[in-house]
Amino acid sequence: MMKKLAERIIAIVFAAAVMFFILTFSIGLPIYCRSFYYAQVDSLELPEQTGFSDSVIREAYDELLDYLTRGRDFGTGALYWSESGKAHFEDCKILFDLDRNVLFVSAAAIAVCVLLSVFCTKQDLRKSLAIGGLLSVGIPLCLGIIAFCDFDRAFSLFHSLLFPGKTNWVFDPLYDQIILILPERFFMNCGLLILCSVLVLAAVAVVSGLSGKRRKRNGSLPETQH
Predict the structure, then answer these.
(1) Cβ(69)–Cβ(103) under 8 Å?
(2) Phi and psi dihedrals of 225, rounded to 5?
(3) DSSP label at 120?
(4) Angle 35-41-46 (CA atoms, 0-180°, nearest 5)?
């Protein structure tokens, strides 16, 4: 009885950890992969659109990301910023830190569950791997469909949910010039990258889980006597 309970708990924790790992890893891609933004400086024609040079744009972005991901002093390079804008990025930093912490915790949980299944319960976690992959698709897919239908409304709804009761995420480019180098198209591309990453990782998890299960069944078939 205790072994069955332990196996069920490990299976549930493993599936949840896989789901959270896929989600947080995908969300972190456009945050920590700065080359993703650099590639869009030219493709979105940001120097021409904003009047800022390539070096000014990159310096502003790097300084902001250093604050959000490395805990350095807040700044936006040579671009103007307001206290209201800074307050919004302080809220963003909380979410960025949360994403990173959940990523690390979920990775650790996956490792612990695998070790327990190998050395203690001797259970097969492939089904839980597939379930975790399937669960990770739901929320991003729904958000992707909503954004595809009406991105502006989805963008506003997204910020209203993450920053309830606050309006400082609505920037005035006269006081917070950073918004000029973070156009709507950039955020749309971030969403596409996250969605694609989730779908790819979820597909890998589901295929790995199901194919492993089939191999086990096929391998357990008795040999035919001739």
Answers:
(1) no
(2) -85, 135
(3) I
(4) 160
For residue 135 the two structure tokens come to 């669960």
Instruction: Write the CA distances from 128 to 12, 110, 125, 202, integer angstroms.
Output: 7, 11, 5, 12
What are the distances in angstroms from CA 125 to CA 29, 62, 90, 91, 206? 27, 41, 39, 37, 12
AA identity, residue 21: F
SS3 helix, strand, coil % of the chain, rounded to 5? 80, 0, 20
Q: Are 191 and 147 in contact, with CB atoms under 8 Å apart?
A: yes
Q: Tokens for 155?
A: 């963008």
Map tokens 């156009």 to a residue: 183
Place of tokens 């069944």: 217
Are 189 and 46 in contact by the 8 Å Cβ rule? The answer is no
From first to last of the 226 residues of the chain, give the pLDDT tens digit: 788 899 999 999 999 999 999 999 999 999 999 999 999 999 999 999 999 999 999 999 999 999 999 999 999 999 999 999 999 999 999 999 999 999 999 999 999 999 999 999 899 999 999 999 999 998 787 877 877 777 777 777 777 888 888 888 889 999 999 999 999 999 999 989 999 999 999 999 999 999 855 544 444 444 434 3
- Nearest in space to 67 (alpha carbons), one of 57, 77, 54: 77
Please state the pTM of the whole predicted model: 0.87
Question: What's the one-letter identity of residue 22?
Answer: I
C-alpha closest to that of 137 among 210, 187, 204: 204
What does DSSP assign to residue 75? -
